[in-house]
């Protein structure tokens, strides 16, 4: 997925400038306006609907840039999930900030990103015969504010299913929503793992102990090497799932397997990377003044959203068990029926 380098540099510069002025989670309104002026709020929306007409390749770079700089803002929830649902259903999309969630049979959803802070919430639910979608004002819902361990808004939402009317959706749209949401978090985790690697390399190169840089000690080298290897594995698995998604327009019969692989690899990589990075940084890495926590906490939080690590491990086990040893290679190479 190639993207114009000048566009990538511009994205990075916007987030870097924001972080020079604001602490994590602050100045969101100003940043949202700036991104809107640059056409980055609805990057993948069609030009006919007021979007920028870009694709997932550009959106992935935008998410990576935000995560790399420790910026907390609902770009994915707004553009790649909520607005995509509205556009898919043929609804008009205005400038309101949105998030989206899938309700359970009781009309509840837990840990919805930025629900209380959004202008609209796009709801998905099953009415007994099929899926429906509706866009509602958060004031019409019961919203209990909360946060994940990274300090990002994660709210519990409850709606009265009996009072909801909405647009019918094909089942494959909801399946795509689940896949998109899962891969969004994988992309974001990979970005912070890469930043943790960069911080660890810089720290071990600059910090000296017993008259030598930390990077000269074999034990430290091993810790950093494991960080690099796990980060690379997570990125490769995620890029593979994204490539399959875009190649098939999110309809590949193998996509669920590739998403499970990506999320499993990302989840386990986060454990190793976070543990090793804090060992490498020592006591200074646990302080609020050091930026390491801006990336380790999101890594651990995001890996459990839209499916826990255990959930994706179980999914992966189910796929492998179903095809057996004779069908495993065909499954891995996406050539199975």
TrEMBL record:
One Pfam match: Acyl-CoA_dh_N
Keywords attached to this entry: FAD, Flavoprotein, Oxidoreductase
All residue ranges annotated as the Acyl-CoA dehydrogenase/oxidase N-terminal domain in the record: 16-91
Domain of life: Bacteria
SUPFAM superfamilies: Acyl-CoA dehydrogenase C-terminal domain-like, Acyl-CoA dehydrogenase NM domain-like
Cofactor(s) required, per the database record: FAD
Every Acyl-CoA dehydrogenase/oxidase C-terminal domain range: 178-300
Gene Ontology molecular function: acyl-CoA dehydrogenase activity; flavin adenine dinucleotide binding
Similarity annotation: Belongs to the acyl-CoA dehydrogenase family.
PANTHER family: ACYL-COA DEHYDROGENASE (PTHR43884), ACYL-COA DEHYDROGENASE FADE28 (PTHR43884:SF20)
Protein name (database record): Acyl-CoA dehydrogenase
Source organism of the structure: Mycolicibacterium fortuitum subsp. fortuitum DSM 46621 = ATCC 6841 = JCM 6387
């Amino acid at each position: 997925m190639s993207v114009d380098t000048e566009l990538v540099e511009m994205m990075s510069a916007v987030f870097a400038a924001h972080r020079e002025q604001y602490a994590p989670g602050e100045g969101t309104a100003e940043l949202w306006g700036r991104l809107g002026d640059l056409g980055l709020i609805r990057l993948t929306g069609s030009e006919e609907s007021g979007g920028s007409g870009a694709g997932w390749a550009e959106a992935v770079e935008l998410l990576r840039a935000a995560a790399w700089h420790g910026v907390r803002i609902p770009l994915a929830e707004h553009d790649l999930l909520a607005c995509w649902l509205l556009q898919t259903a043929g609804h008009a999309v205005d400038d309101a900030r949105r998030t989206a969630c899938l309700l359970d049979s009781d009309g509840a959803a837990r840990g919805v990103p930025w629900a209380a802070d959004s202008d609209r919430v796009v709801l998905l639910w099953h009415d007994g015969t099929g899926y429906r979608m509706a866009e509602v004002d958060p004031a019409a819902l019961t919203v209990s504010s909360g946060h994940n361990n990274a300090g990002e808004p994660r709210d519990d939402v409850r709606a009265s299913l009996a009072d909801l009317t909405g647009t019918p959706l094909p089942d494959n749209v909801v399946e795509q929503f689940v896949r998109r949401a899962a891969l969004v978090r994988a992309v974001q985790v990979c970005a912070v793992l890469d930043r943790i690697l960069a911080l660890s390399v810089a720290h071990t190169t600059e910090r000296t102990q017993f008259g030598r840089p930390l990077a000269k000690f074999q034990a430290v080298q091993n810790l950093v090497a494991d960080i690099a290897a796990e980060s690379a594995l997570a990125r490769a698995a995620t890029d593979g799932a994204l490539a399959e998604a875009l190649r098939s327009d999110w309809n590949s019969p193998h996509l669920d397997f590739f998403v499970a692989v990506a999320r499993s690899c990302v989840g386990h990589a986060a454990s190793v990377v976070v543990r090793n990075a804090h060992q490498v940084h020592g006591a200074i890495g646990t302080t609020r003044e050091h930026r390491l926590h801006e990336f380790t906490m999101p890594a651990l939080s995001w890996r459990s959203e839209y499916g826990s690590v255990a959930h994706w491990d179980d999914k992966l086990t189910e796929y492998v068990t179903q095809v057996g040893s004779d069908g495993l290679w065909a499954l891995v190479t996406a050539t199975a029926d």
